[in-house]
Amino acid sequence: MKVGAKTKLIRDYTTTPASTNDGVVLPVLITAADRDRKLHADAAYTGAPIAEHLRVTGTRNYIHEKGTAGEPLTATQKQRNRRKSKTRARVGHVFAFMEMSRGSIYNRCVGRVRNEYQIGMMNLCYNLCRSVHLLRSATV
Q1: Do 9 and 130 meet the contact criterion of CB atoms below 8 Å apart?
Q2: Are 43 and 63 in contact (CB under 8 A)?
Q3: Which of 23, 35, 45, 48 is the most exposed place for a label (fewest CB within 10 A)?
Q4: Taking a C-beta distance cutoff of 8 angstroms, is the pair 136, 129 a contact?
Q5: Closest by alpha carbon to 34, among 69, 71, 4, 64?
C-alpha cells in the first residue's frame, strides 16, 4: 500500500497471495512517477534489488536499516531509524483506523478476486472517511 505522508490518503495498492514477500511487489507500486519522493518502509524492504529499483526510479531511500545476529545496529543507525519512524508511523495510522472502525481487517473471502475487491472497498471507504476529516479540518 502506498500512502501519502502528509494526507495519509491511500495513493495506490496491490494484492498478492499470502505466500508472496511484500518486497516483490514494491516495483509495482514505486515507479518513475515517484521521482524525488521519499520511500519510508520497514526493514523487510532492504536489499540490493530494491535499492537498485529505487535508484533507477529516482526515489529517495528512507527504508529502515536492519541488523543481523552477528552485526547489530550501531547507535547511529538506531538514531536514523528513530527519525525515519516518525514518518513511517503514519502508515500505521491507516491500518489502525481500519482495525478500529471494522473491528478487524481480516478478510474471510475465498478466492483472490473476492479478496482484491474487499481490500479495494476497504481502501476506498478509508479514503472517503479521511477526505471528510481533511475537508472538515480545512474549514476550521
Answers
A1: yes
A2: yes
A3: 48
A4: no
A5: 4
* Three-class secondary structure assignment of 9-58: CEEECCCCCCCCCHHHHHHHHCCHHHCCCEEEECHHHCCHHHHHHHHHHC
- Count of CA atoms in the C-beta half-sphere (13 A) of 140: 6
Q: What is the crossing angle of helices 22-29 and 48-57, to 10°? A: 10
- 99-120 pLDDT tens trace: 888 777 777 788 889 999 999 9
Q: Which domains does the chain have, with CATH numbers?
A: 2-139 (3.30.420)
Residue type present at position 100: M
Listed in order, strand segments (DSSP E) in 4-138 are 10-12, 38-41, 60-63
